[in-house]
Amino acid sequence: QIGAGVSLPGVLAAKCGAEVILSDSEELPQCLRNCRRSCLMNDLPHVPVIGLTWGRVSPELLSLAPVDVILGSDVFFDPEDFEDILMTVYFLLEKNPRAQFWTTYQVRSADWSIEALLCKWKLKNIHVPLHSFSADKEHLAGSPLPGRHTIEMMIISLARSDGT
């Protein structure tokens, strides 16, 4: 999981039996501590937590084990980070061509889009409608989201040479 924060998606995946690596910015040691704390509180002391800064090719990024799925929950928050996120995802997908990046985000502005950056980084996306798994209801699990907010889910992968 990239941009793990408190690690809910990664912890849930680990509890369901997935092999998980949690990551957040190496520049935010408090986030890394929160990830470790979440793992310990959920009886997952074996889950690795690493510092990965978007847009930076680091020894940690270079030495990552193969992955099948990259999780990113609400990582598209600040438009200034969009390209760095996609550069990091592109690097991981190039290392793991069959992998996919599963991400969600809240549409905060009509001016913010990753579509042009997906083309630039030769990535394609498949939008996953929230209603396809009954997640488009107000107050789902006690949360006010999506409510009047637009939540997007997409699966991003490498585009083929013909752009598809």
Description:
The protein has 164 residues and is of the alpha/beta class. The protein contains five helices and six strands, in the order H-E-H-E-H-E-H-E-H-E-E. The mean pLDDT is 88. The chain is 27% helix and 20% strand. A four-stranded mixed beta sheet has the order 3-4-6-5. The longest helix is centred in the middle third of the chain and has 14 residues, at 82-95. Belongs to the methyltransferase superfamily. METTL23 family. GO terms for molecular function: methyltransferase activity. Keywords: Methyltransferase, S-adenosyl-L-methionine, Transferase. This is Methyltransferase-like protein 23.
The main sheet comes to:
4 strands, mixed
Shape category: globular
Structural class: alpha/beta
User: Using only CA atoms, what is the Rg?
Assistant: 16 Å
Q: Helix coverage percent of residues?
A: 25-40%
Q: Order of strands across the biggest sheet?
A: 3-4-6-5
Q: Would you report the number of β strands?
A: 6
Helix and strand run? HEHEHEHEHEE
Mean pLDDT: 88
Distance between the termini: 25 Å
Helix count from the secondary structure assignment: 5
How much of the residues is beta strand, in percent?
Answer: 15-25%
- Given as residue ranges, the uncertain stretches (5+ residues, pLDDT < 50) are none
